[in-house]
Amino acid sequence: MGIDWSNLAFVTVMGTGSLAAGIIVTITMPAPPADRCPSPIAWRRSWPRLWRTAVVYLAVMSTVAVFARSYILAPFLREHAPSTVPALSDTPLSTGPVRTAEVFQLAIYGGPFEEPVFVVLPLLGASLVALFLTQYGSAAIAARFLTYAVPAIVIVSMVGRVGIHLYQGADAAIAAAVWGGAACLLYLRWRSLGGLVLAHVTYNVVYVDVLRRIESVALLTATTGLLVLGAAAIGVCVLREHHRTTRTRPTLVDESK
Known about the structure:
Elements: H1 5-28, H2 47-80, H3 96-136, H4 139-165, H5 170-190, H6 193-214, H7 217-248
């Protein structure tokens, strides 16, 4: 089996083009009228937000893939709806240049294409509409627009992920929908395109290529467990920081009167 050069060229163009579009829009995005608008302007050079996003998103992806998909979804579907899950292939794993090309495709397409297209660009588009409504309409209309637009974008993002992962089976499509929704929520929280891309690329390389070849359930579970513990530790730190800043934040009204 040789390298599929046409597919390699396609995913390279799609991945680099989508990532470039996400970066350009992020950099040129005007400042939002309020923090609730999903704009990354205030955070685009924040490394803490990048690694928080990367660790939490990677933990979500690996947990869904290892525990939910491998131990729950796939066995259930193979028993009750076997036609929705592809049969396990006996094809030997690729090596040499073919493996290098496959890993490159996993890296350049999974994160650089999916995260800008299904998360960042739609949410930034909603933010631009909200900015327009705020400037030429009213803040109330903009807020109402975001109230309906953001959930709709999350749903469409989940459906889009299902569509491009359905060829891998219903279990993979469901898992992709879950982490697609998580990606939108994480971006709304920390506004880090780099964190989403880094996590997705790491997942594709480590889980899809490296750990699949080692075939060690213990190592797979231990890796996922460490990621979950890391994400939990980040969550605790974020909550403590939020609680501290909330307690020390000055008020605009003198409450003693």
